[in-house]
Design brief:
By secondary structure, this protein is of the alpha+beta class. 42% of the residues lie in helices and 16% in strands. A hairpin with a 7-residue loop joins strand 1 and strand 2 (42-46). The protein is globular and about 55 Å long.
């Protein structure tokens, strides 16, 4: 699929986003994501008051995980919640090219908070087909990174300053598996949080790649050949 074909699809769906929201009412948020820039993936949104997001906001944690490990099909009728406590019934329809690679998604988030109050007679409307998915709707890529980093460090039961070398590698591996390094400048942020150089982070990622014996996913963090060479000389400078 040529870039201009993807652009035409995105342009059409941006118009469809407004049309669908107008048809179904202000209780339904329609969001269009362009995955070419995960940090600013929202290119169109209608009824953004439901989650408080707007055009230019980031792909959330669930979106990063799906980008890291794409599903075989779409995700339909699962339960999420907004930051201010609204209960949502959500669906994500993925945009794929001829090779099946995902380049975007059209997401529908229906605020069913009112329906839940009368669920005795609306039971058929609010039936969920999937287990609840943990998802928050962050406004910025910094919020996504902070959440991923704090979760990864908290899972160790220690503070960042207390982590030893192997525990830091485990934190980096968890962040890599969650898609954190798809975010531009994430290596710098993670290095700062763990109190080490970015070259050490690169070396940890290399060790994780060797240990898992699978290629690392392409990240949004650009790594030059020069930095890679420097990384070899910095491996033992911090742990």
């Amino acid at each position: 699929m040529l870039p201009n074909e993807k652009a035409r699809i995105i342009e059409f769906l941006a118009r469809l986003t407004t049309g669908l929201a107008s048809a179904v009412g202000d209780h339904c948020e329609i969001v269009l994501h362009d995955f070419s820039d995960p940090g600013h993936s929202i290119v169109a949104i209608a009824n953004g008051h439901i989650t408080g997001r707007s055009v230019g906001d980031t792909l959330d944690v669930l979106g990063l995980q799906l980008l890291k490990k794409p599903p075989d099909g779409d995700l339909l009728n699962y339960r999420t919640s907004s930051k201010d406590g609204k209960t949502l019934r959500s669906s994500s329809i993925f945009l794929r090219d001829e090779q099946g690679e995902i380049f975007g998604s059209l997401c529908i988030n229906v605020d069913i908070s009112g329906a839940l109050a009368g669920q005795d007679f609306l039971r058929s409307v609010i039936k969920f087909e999937a287990t609840e998915v943990e998802e928050r709707f962050e406004h910025s890529v910094d919020e996504v990174l902070d959440r991923l980093m704090h979760t990864a460090i908290a899972s160790s039961g220690k503070t960042a300053a207390e982590l030893n070398r192997e525990e830091k590698i485990a934190v980096v591996e968890q962040l890599e598996s969650k898609g954190a390094f798809l975010i531009r400048y994430s290596v710098d942020r993670v290095a700062e949080m763990l109190g080490m150089s970015k070259y050490t982070i690169y070396n940890y990622l290399d060790k994780i790649k060797e240990r898992n014996a699978v290629p690392l996913a392409a990240t949004a963090t650009s790594r030059s050949d020069e930095e890679h060479q420097k990384a070899q000389g910095h491996e033992h400078q911090s742990s």
